[in-house]
Amino acid sequence: MRLLNFGSMNVDHVYQVEHFVRPGETISALKLDYFCGGKGLNQSVALARAGAETYHAGMLGKGSEELEQMLVRSGVQMDYMGVSAEMTGHAVIQVDASGQNNIIIYGGSNQAVTPAYIDSVLSHFGPEDMVLTQNEISNISYLARRCGELGIPLVFNPSPITEGLLKEFPFEKVSIFLINEVEGQALTGESEPGAILDALLTRWPHARVVLTLGQRGVVYRDREHTYSHGAYRVKAVDTTAAGDTFTGFFLASLARGEDIPRCLENASLASALAVSRPGAAPSIPTMAEVDAARGTITPSPAP
């Protein structure tokens, strides 16, 4: 199975701070680093490092050379990339003393993905493949509808959640939801994990849902099965790529035909390794590193 990721690419400006800046406050950063990032790029890097046959689709803009090199070095196929005259997207990220982050994103070339480009790329893929996307590029609603028409399974990570997404996106086209609690609450109005899962599967009963719960672990549910896995406790350095790493390793494991409990284990362990390192894409481990760490870290009880 080939995995096609229609996703964003950003240059991340990461500021280490003692605490997040408050309204009206000016603070001095302890350190500034530049990393390759964007949810799309991070997830493609994770997919490829986890061993999946990964194709990235998106728009390379001005100043994107390092992003392109990162994808190639990670083993991502670049056959269907587009080029835009816009500046490459970027993110301003604050990371506090506990490793938590907050992020401002400028879309740039990520917002230059057109319906014509989507059609051109999808013409090379079919129902035996899988498409992944997030909410950081333009025309994702069109992408979802075209995947539905072509019979290509669609995996959706609805991040960041926006009012426009909730009003316009054809969620009925989604085969697999990969969401956290904040996104689950925005989609359903529920706050308790069980209620979020119940509401999603009542509304879209054909879908499979993976709900990540931070330090409490993760729950998977479809119409017939429920599985869960605890989180691995490590010292957090930077949580920026935690969710993207989970997404990539879960889907790569699924594409290999592994069962859901093993997919959850691989993704949870990979995510723990990622948060123990600085940066977004640079923090994502390989499958070999995940296998080497297996059994050396004990997960918390499953939720």
UniProtKB/TrEMBL annotation:
List residues of the Carbohydrate kinase PfkB domain: 5-286
Domain of life per record = Bacteria
Which Gene3D superfamilies would you find in this protein's record? Answer: 3.40.1190.20
Catalytic reactions on record: D-ribose + ATP = D-ribose 5-phosphate + ADP + H(+)
For this UniProt record, the keywords arranged alphabetically read as follows:
ATP-binding, Carbohydrate metabolism, Cytoplasm, Kinase, Magnesium, Metal-binding, Nucleotide-binding, Potassium, Transferase
Paste the cofactor note: Requires a divalent cation, most likely magnesium in vivo, as an electrophilic catalyst to aid phosphoryl group transfer. It is the chelate of the metal and the nucleotide that is the actual substrate.
Cofactor (UniProt) = Mg(2+)
Record-linked Pfam families: PfkB
Q: Where does K(+) bind?
A: 238, 240, 274, 277, 279, 283
| Keyword check for Transferase | yes
| Active-site residues annotated for this sequence | 244 (proton acceptor)
Q: How does it assemble?
A: Homodimer.
Family membership: Belongs to the carbohydrate kinase PfkB family. Ribokinase subfamily.
Report what the protein is called: Ribokinase
